[in-house]
Amino acid sequence: MNAKRRRLRQAQAIALLTILSLLLTGCSFSFWDWLAGRPITRPAEIPVGEETGDEPGGGRRDPVVSTGGDAAPGQGETGEGGGAAPGAGTPSTGDGETGSGDGAGGDGGAVVLPGRCAMWAGGLEPSPGPFEEVTLEPVDEGSQDASFAGFRRSLLEALARRDVEALEAAVAPDIRTGFGEDGGLESFRRQWGLDRDPENSLIWEILTDILNLGGIMTGGSDGPRVFTAPYVYALYSGPLDAFGHAVVTGAGVNIRAEPSTEARILDQASHLVVRVIRSERELPTVELSGRTYCWVQVQLPSGEIGYVADRFLWSPAGWRAMFQEGDDGWRMTLLVSGD
What is the pLDDT of residues 261-275, one digit of tens each? Predict the structure, then answer.
């Protein structure tokens, strides 16, 4: 009889402990951890913030180049966010690839640049597992040169006004617009639609983003000085494939479970190189600070897959520009994408 009572009490105790454990499953620790004497820790909560950076956890959007007040571009704070201009993305692979120069030659055909989101079409399949973690901190050497800083400030002001005449005055007559033999100012006009619909040209946003993402100054002494932008292109050297990866250009940037500012935040990334996941569908967009951005699916080095607004993303193989100093001042000598 006593043996039966002991077995009954043991069964009741086990049942009670099981119920207590089930009730505690919604907590961030396990009852069994407590019972075994293991330390109990609660994971830190990731703050929910919008991608504008106006809320905690939304990602810093401090530009590499500052044009506020009387300071020359690049002399403002870089903060922890570094560049926060959007990525122009990896160009679409196919007949519509940007920067090829096709159609800008003698037949007078117009190059049709793909839309912003289409430029992210050339991605990779998800990695089967974790990959090497690489970061790329923002750099701007343009602020160290007074003449270039003044040129850049004036060009950014012209881009904000959408001033075609001022823009073309900053372009070299023999500017390189692709990887073929074509180039020059006429090719530049056709490529960016400045001869047809200048108000809606992509040049205003793309070139602004390039300039705001800093860059590297080379040359001098025995040769002309050249400024290459953005820093993502100028400094990227692998080991991850430039065409299949992109750099998060801000700090604390939200990586979300779905392409929505209301979606769960999986993680936050700072200046991290991420894998761009190939998409056969049209990418969803989001309005942030008066501009339209694209939701890009990316994979973190941990293997986790989520979405990031390309306000905070730039491809090392995306749009880049070079500016060279001559007798008549600084001019843009190259604006291409891809390879």
Answer: 999 999 999 999 999
